[in-house]
Amino acid sequence: DAGITQSPRHKVTETGTPVTLRCHQTENHRYMYWYRQDPGHGLRLIHYSYGVKDTDKGEVSDGYSVSRSKTEDFLLTLESATSSQTSVYFCANGQSGNTIYFGEGSWLTVV
Amino acid sequence: DQQVKQNSPSLSVQEGRISILNCDYTNSMFDYFLWYKKYPAEGPTFLISISSIKDKNEDGRFTVFLNKSAKHLSLHIVPSQPGDSAVYFCAASEYQGAQKLVFGQGTRLTINP
């Protein structure tokens, strides 16, 4: 069990507005991740964190930033949302060398 | 460049028979492989994994086979049940530390009664 809560679960926003998605874990895992899922692409890594204030880019990081000020929280920010960022966003967590576990997802629509 | 590929977008199998889902990869540095199952409107759930030092791992009705020389892995589900109907993703990673998983596109499995 990931022990992950994502918020908001659903959001519609306008192009050009900033958006922040929150991921909260109760498991105290070291690693946290943000993925996006799009048809035909599976899940793609946006950013990940390997500790408080330690983050790195994933495969599709352009247009996204993250922050991790506490072990339990990992925030994903879209500074200026675009229609190409309409997607389902999944947060995940895990410990070193082990499987990662996903949250329920956040559905974001940019109009 | 798609490093992990699932070439079958969909698969239909009769209840009670064997389901075989396939996955190919191109990166020879991958050393850990996983399968996830996903129902609509839910997050992916971990199913089974295999390390590159093994060629088979079994967990109940689920078995994963790894053929490193062919860069191919498969998931066998036997017997298939209606609750197995879902999208299945294979994933791979290079490191045992931060598991930066690379996913395939997914295969939608439908189990017919």
Radius of gyration of chain A: 13 Å
Low-confidence regions of chain B: none
User: How many whole angstroms does the radius of gyration of chain B measure?
Assistant: 13 Å
Which geometry of chain A do the CA atoms define? globular
Number of DSSP helices of chain B? 0
Helix content of chain B: under 10%
Q: What kind of sheet is the major sheet of chain A?
A: 7 strands, mixed
For the secondary structure, the number of strands of chain B is 11
Number of strands of chain A: 11
Amount of beta strand of chain A: over 45%
Helix content of chain A: under 10%
Distance between the termini of chain A: 34 Å
What's the layout of helices and strands?
The complex is a heterodimer of chains A (111) and B (113).
Chain A: E1 4-7, E2 10-13, E3 19-25, E4 31-38, E5 42-51, E6 54-57, E7 64-70, E8 73-78, E9 87-94, E10 101-102, E11 106-110
Parallel strand pairs in A: 2-11
Antiparallel strand pairs in A: 1-3, 3-8, 4-5, 4-9, 5-6, 7-8, 9-10, 9-11
Chain B: E1 4-5, E2 10-14, E3 19-25, E4 32-38, E5 45-51, E6 56-59, E7 62-67, E8 72-77, E9 86-93, E10 102-103, E11 107-112
Parallel strand pairs in B: 2-11
Antiparallel strand pairs in B: 1-3, 3-8, 4-5, 4-9, 6-7, 7-8, 9-10, 9-11
Describe the structure.
The complex is a heterodimer of chains A (111) and B (113). Chain A has 111 residues and is mainly β. Chain A has strands spanning 4-7, 10-13, 19-25, 31-38, 42-51, 54-57, 64-70, 73-78, 87-94, 101-102, 106-110. The model of chain A has no long low-confidence stretch (mean pLDDT 94). In chain A, the strands form 2 sheets. In chain A, strands 2, 4, 5, 6, 9, 10 and 11 form a 7-stranded mixed sheet that branches. Chain A starts with a strand and ends with a strand. Chain B contains no helices and 11 strands. In chain B, the strands form 2 sheets. In chain B, strands 2, 4, 5, 9, 10 and 11 form a 6-stranded mixed sheet that branches. Chain B has a 5-stranded antiparallel sheet with strand order 1-3-8-7-6, with no helix packed on it. In chain B, 39% of the residues are buried. The mean pLDDT of chain B is 95. Chains A and B meet through strand 4, strand 5 and strand 10 of A and strand 5 and strand 10 of B.
